[in-house]
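Just curious. Protein, please.
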Amino acid sequence: NSEKKDLRLNMSNMNEITVRTVNIQNEEIVKTFRDVKSYNCSECDYSCEMSGNMIQHIRIHTGEKPFKCSICDYICTTSGNMKQHIRTHTGEKPYKCSICDYSCTGSGKLKIHIRTHTGEKPFKCSECDNSFTASGDLKRHMRTHTGEKPYKCSVCDYSCAESGNMKQHIRTHTGEKPHNCSECNFRSITFADLKKHMRTHTGEKPYKCSECDYSCTASAVFRRHMRKHTGVKP
């Protein structure tokens, strides 16, 4: 919604509290203030106990992103997110895993990583038996059920479910090939294509036929070979 919204903090459960004190002149001082129990969002069901948290939440509805990176075009809603982003430029990774050598820029990322050790997958799909370590992974997975493809190309009719796939697709328009072979002049749009190419140098053939001695470097070539055994026609 492009319409600019004027959202204000709604305070509820407010109690007036009177505090009586005595100063050094033995004079009674009476102060009255409000004890705010919660702030309620006027746009959704969100509520919190601190006004600062509500101000940050309101930006979800208004689209306001007041924090701007001085190095790149990144903008965000909170100073904490900006602090974490700046570390992508400085290389600082202060959050370190106590089990392995993993380190990262934010506490949230470390929390998700720890689940790879504990096996915890708290985000469960309501449509199937899949579960995930991060809410973002569940959100992406749900699109396989809903068919939602929120990422749309501005150049052609292509749309997809994940931002990473869109980023790769855009390169088919721009011609960008960021993945370079260290052995020759080959460049590719995706890391997967580079990995496949590297097998021409290493001689690795990970796809092995269970029916004969055939092996190859690419899954598509392997599928064609298997049709000789199964008799399935493309």
